[in-house]
Amino acid sequence: MRDFASCFGENAVRLSDSSCSSNRSNNSTTSPSRIPSTQDSVTCFYRTVLSTRKQVLITVSWCKNALSQGLNITLGDDYSSSFKLNTNSRLFRKLKGSKSMEFTDSKVEVFWDLSTAQYQTGPEPMDGYYVLIMFGTELGLILGDMVDETMARKLKTGTRIAKFSLLSRQEHFSGSTLYSTKVQFSETGVPHDILIRCSGEDQGLKYPVLSVCVDKKMVTRVDRLQWNFRGNQTIFLDGLLVDLMWDVHDWIHNSGQGYAVFMFRTRSGVDNRLWMEEKMVLKDQDKVEFSLMIYACKNM
């Protein structure tokens, strides 16, 4: 029997030996002095399965702009059951505390502590924080690296922890056409560095070129982007098939206005369809597919 990887050898690419280093003249690279784009917001969608078998979609959004920075949590599609926190306002910020709210006739409580949170350039904290969501007496979502200490201090012994998983992640960027982020495609996988850049005449190229790199290895290079502004490529990574889609039409044909969209989505080996043919629904299955969507605004 052929192994899993060989079955997709004609359509999937592994990480190439081609480097994304800026000193390689045959790659679509950018100048080392080029300023990367800025991450404006990060939205994560989690599925929580409670002990009653009830499923809840939890949306967690981190945002940052010139005036504010904060956190927004929404349960299901009921925007009245939402929690908002401005961590930048001198008048209204509360970096540590708890809040109760109602969701489908049940009590939900949010605990948070961002008083020692450490950030890089984006709105999402990297460490030194926690966010907990309780559904009655059941812990429905755990975020952050200070959870163990908090759970021992705040929660009762034997508190039930619901099964939750990250379904998808959306990131908004603005600035140049150089975008970098980090993503983990599965719970057992390792984090990967993703770099997306679009090079044009300002880099001495006759036609715009798009390149996508994972861990400094090129996985996709799209030449003559004015004709190939939409497309897809399949990557074999961490034992998974990952579909990559790009749409940069507005960059190329609308004077650089609007967003370009890049999407990475895992799929199982038994499903040979592109992710675009599937519906975004919550499936009652143990193995959860993951997607990363990047909205990129070019304003430079």
What percentage of residues falls in helices of 4 or more residues? under 10%
What share of residues are in beta strands?
Answer: over 45%
Cα-atom Rg, whole angstroms? 21 Å
- State the major sheet: 10 strands, mixed
User: Ranges with pLDDT <50 over ≥5 residues?
Assistant: 1-11, 22-32, 275-285
Number of strands: 19
Q: In total, how many domains does the architecture comprise?
A: 2
Count helical runs.
Answer: 3
- Principal-axes geometry comes out as elongated
Question: How would you sum up this structure, described in words?
Answer:
The protein has 2 domains: 4-37 and 176-298, no CATH class; 43-167, no CATH class. The protein is built from 3 helices and 19 strands. It has helices spanning 4-7, 147-154, 249-253; strands spanning 12-13, 38-49, 55-64, 69-75, 78-86, 96-103, 106-113, 130-135, 138-144, 160-161, 163-175, 178-183, 192-199, 209-214, 217-222, 230-237, 240-247, 259-267, 291-298. The chain has a 10-stranded mixed β-sheet with strand order 1-16-17-18-19-11-2-3-4-5. Strand 2 and strand 3 (55-64) form a beta hairpin. The longest helix is centred in the middle third of the chain and has 8 residues, at 147-154. Mean pLDDT is 80; it is low at 1-11, 22-32 and 275-285.
Task: Itemize the secondary structure elements and their pairings.
Blueprint: H1 4-7, E1 12-13, E2 38-49, E3 55-64, E4 69-75, E5 78-86, E6 96-103, E7 106-113, E8 130-135, E9 138-144, H2 147-154, E10 160-161, E11 163-175, E12 178-183, E13 192-199, E14 209-214, E15 217-222, E16 230-237, E17 240-247, H3 249-253, E18 259-267, E19 291-298
Parallel strand pairs: 1-16, 9-10, 11-19
Antiparallel strand pairs: 2-3, 2-11, 3-4, 4-5, 6-7, 7-8, 8-9, 12-13, 13-14, 14-15, 16-17, 17-18, 18-19
